[in-house]
Design brief:
Layout (H helix, E strand, L loop, with lengths): L3 E2 L11 H7 L2 E8 L2 E7 L7 E6 L5 E3 L24 E4 L2 E5 L6 E5 L8 E2 L6 E9 L4 E8 L7 E8 L3 H4 L5 E4 L4 E7 L5 E7 L10 E7 L5 E8 L6 E6 L5 E5 L6 E6 L17 E4 L19 E5 L2 E8 L2 E8 L5 E3 L5 E9 L2 E7 L6 E6 L2 E7 L14 E6 L5 E7 L6 E2 L8 E5 L13 H7 L4 E6 L8 H5 L8 H15 L8 E6 L1 H12 L5 E5 L5 H7 L2 H11 L7 H6 L12 E6 L7 H13 L4 E6 L9 H19 L24
Parallel strand pairs: 1-32, 33-34, 33-35, 35-36, 36-37, 37-38
Antiparallel strand pairs: 2-3, 3-4, 4-5, 6-7, 7-8, 8-9, 10-11, 11-12, 12-13, 14-15, 15-16, 16-17, 18-19, 19-20, 20-21, 22-23, 23-24, 24-25, 26-27, 27-28, 28-29, 30-31, 31-34
Length: 675
């Protein structure tokens, strides 16, 4: 069948904003308990509430937790470090969970008929997460974040009784470690004799410099001998995990890449002093090389590998922006990659020889995938609206040489629609995507956020600019001190490379991002003339103001990116978009949430009004009941449709049913005609 010739960007697409907002879910915190698979699921339809789901051995899937007292729903979330993460633990049917609506910890026994949720902590100013259940001692180890004094938030590792006594008397909650600014990742050895955890101190970040500690625990659950296993300058350590034999696996980046290490010697022989183990520990790298076996720890509970059997780990790793899954042999470090048709993008877990992981694919939406005796099966998909593969634009891994010689990575998605083709004398407009973080990474899997554009005739470039993760520590840290400058140059060089290849219309290039990505959008519009439109979703606008509003980890990271701890340093004003608005040289769409504590509506309004007063073309949308990040289905749908209509207006693209977008000062420049 012949295709209809139509201008790029105007193609009719089956991929709608509603199909994303209404049917997609997030799949996180994947764990196994025997044959059962557990995960936390969030959906725009639930308006941000997250639920704990279980897939049992019979293949039945359902919610696990009952209602709280007063028929209240459980929101499986923690606000520790503001980014949250691991909000529950499961062990032999026992569940400990943080309820995000009251910050209390609850206990639930799945083995007891008609069991109820038992509160383990009081309703106070403390938040908890990163749980590790100790059945023998009847406690759960947890990270505690105490906001009693909001100006001096305290972090500690604590032991909470499972009998609920801590909810009646806070003195029953014992402190294990409170000598450092931050703590995470408690993990108990198989015999219960050792507890390991990670700590770090400001101004360091968990991925710049952190320590791995191990303590011997007595019968009462008190540490009596502690050693620091990893504590080296500019070395970050994460994900301690015990093997069945009692060896400790961890990941650190002392080689320049996040590699796996094994420490042996934790056992004590008969007749030896109880602390004899501390003098004979031996650590060796399992599989050295330019691979990253984890990502920066923004959230609690990273789980990029697990113990598969007595001699193998199942793990994920990144190499040149591509993720892989496979095993590493404990005895000799031999690696074997698994070809499952999926690549891992989240937790990897194993139990009883079975493996589950959150997987990505070029043909299917992210899903929970199970591997059992080499059989691969999807347990849960993140979106039930399967795309017709004829419409699927698959990622092409591209690289280009930046102006300073650095090799930069990205993923290019060409426009694709089986019903349409563009005119021979026209090239497609480009949507340039800037991931947030910036220590995150663009991923190449099937994504409605990209197919929404490609099926309409837009090309997409998703950039892993310097500062991104999964390409080694040196690549990530090369953005330090150059935030707002170096990543903009990388992105511009990538756009220019696509233009040189005649893949895009260089006159119709947009740049879009959220959070730190939104900051980069504004920096690009103020410092280059490559982009003819931009969308900043709750992007940082006033860096000094952001320092006072952002979570502690975010603020410390921002200081590192600016290479300045003094907000009176001129660089903070020079790099803040709010101070460079006169240099904005393309129409910009500003989006934000009415409840955003970091990039407030007032801040967006101030920038909007200054742009209007200076004659710039600008549109603004503030969404009710949203914070720093959009979660509601109606918001997501409106945001996508508004962004499409904004570009269509700027570039003169005719849409069938555009939403109205009020662009101030529109008409001050002509429509950008396609070439």
């Amino acid at each position: 069948m012949s295709k209809e010739v139509a201008s790029y960007g105007s193609w009719i697409s089956p991929v709608t904003a509603q199909s994303y907002a209404g049917r997609s879910v997030t799949l996180t915190q994947l764990r196994m308990d025997g044959p059962d698979i557990y995960w936390v699921e969030g959906s725009p339809r639930r308006e941000g509430r997250k639920v704990l789901l279980r897939r049992n051995a019979l293949g039945q899937t359902g919610e696990v937790l009952p209602l709280l007292e007063g028929s209240r729903l459980v929101h499986v979330a923690t606000r520790v470090h503001e980014f949250g993460g691991r909000a529950y633990a499961i062990k032999n049917g026992r569940i400990v969970v943080s309820n995000g609506t009251d910050d209390r910890v609850y206990y639930f026994d799945t083995r007891t008929l008609r069991a109820q949720l038992v509160p383990l902590t009081q309703l106070d100013k403390c938040r908890y997460g990163d749980f590790e259940i100790d059945e023998a001692r009847g406690v759960v180890y947890a990270v505690c974040e105490d906001h009693t004094d909001p100006d001096h938030v305290q972090h500690s590792l604590v032991a909470i009784p499972l009998d609920g006594s801590g909810a009646r008397d806070t003195s029953k909650i014992r402190t294990i470690c409170d000598q450092t600014d931050f703590v995470s990742s408690p993990t108990l050895s198989p015999d219960g004799s050792k507890l390991a955890w990670v700590t770090w101190n400001r101004p360091e970040l968990p991925w710049t410099k952190s320590e791995l500690r191990v303590a011997a625990m007595n019968a009462a659950g008190e540490p009596f001998k502690q050693v620091t296993l990893v504590d080296r300058p500019d070395v970050a350590v994460t994900e301690p995990r015990w093997t069945f034999a009692g060896d400790l696996i961890h990941i650190d980046d002392s080689s320049g890449h996040a590699n796996l290490y094994r420490t042996e010697g934790f056992t004590t022989n008969d007749g030896e002093p109880q602390d004899a183990w501390a003098t004979r520990l031996r650590t060796r790298v399992l599989h050295p090389g330019p691979r990253s076996f984890t990502t920066p720890r923004w959230h609690l509970g990273l789980h990029s590998f697990d113990v598969l059997d007595n001699d193998h780990l199942i793990c994920s790793w990144a190499e040149d922006s591509q993720w892989h899954l496979g095993t590493i042999q404990l005895s000799n470090g031999l690696m074997e990659e698994w070809d499952t048709g999926w690549w891992p993008i989240g937790n990897v877990a194993a139990s009883e020889g079975r493996v589950v992981f959150v997987g990505d694919s070029s043909t299917h939406y992210p899903a929970i995938v199970r591997v059992d005796n080499a059989a691969v099966k999807v347990v849960r998909t993140s979106n039930e609206a399967e795309i017709d593969q004829d419409y699927n634009s698959r990622a092409e891994h591209v690289t280009w040489t930046a102006r300073d010689g650095l090799k930069v990575h990205g993923f290019y998605y060409p426009p694709n629609n089986p019903q349409f083709t563009g005119p021979e004398d026209e090239l497609p407009p480009l949507i340039t995507m800037v991931h947030s973080g910036p220590a995150n990474a663009a991923l190449p899997g099937l994504s409605l956020a990209k197919q929404y554009w490609t099926t309409r005739g837009f090309a997409v470039l998703d950039v892993n600019y310097r500062g991104s993760t999964a390409l080694g520590r040196k690549y990530r840290e090369s953005l330090n001190g150059q935030f707002g400058v170096a990543e903009v140059a990388d992105i511009v060089d990538g756009v220019n490379w696509l233009a040189e290849q005649k893949l895009i219309d260089s006159k119709r290039v947009a740049i879009a991002g959220s959070g730190t990505g939104g900051f980069t959008v504004m920096a690009a519009l103020e410092s280059t003339e490559v982009f003819s439109a931009g969308t900043s979703r709750y992007g940082y606008l006033d860096l000094r103001r952001t320092l006072t509003h952002a979570p502690i980890v975010d603020a410390d990271y921002l200081r590192r990116l600016m290479d300045s701890s003094d907000s009176s340093d001129p660089v903070w004003a020079e790099r803040s978009p709010i101070n460079q608005l006169a240099r904005v040289n393309a129409p910009v769409l500003l989006m934000g949430g009415a409840n955003d504590p970091i990039v407030t509506p007032d801040e967006i309004e101030e920038v909007y009004q200054k742009l209007v007063d200076s004659g710039k073309e600008v549109a603004k949308v503030i969404f009710d009941n949203e914070g720093h990040g959009f979660v509601r289905a109606d918001t997501l749908e409106s945001a996508w449709r508004t962004e499409l209509a904004f570009y269509a207006d700027i570039w003169g693209i005719e849409l069938q049913h555009p939403v109205p977008v009020e662009i101030a000062n529109r008409g001050s420049r002509p429509v950008v005609n396609p070439v």
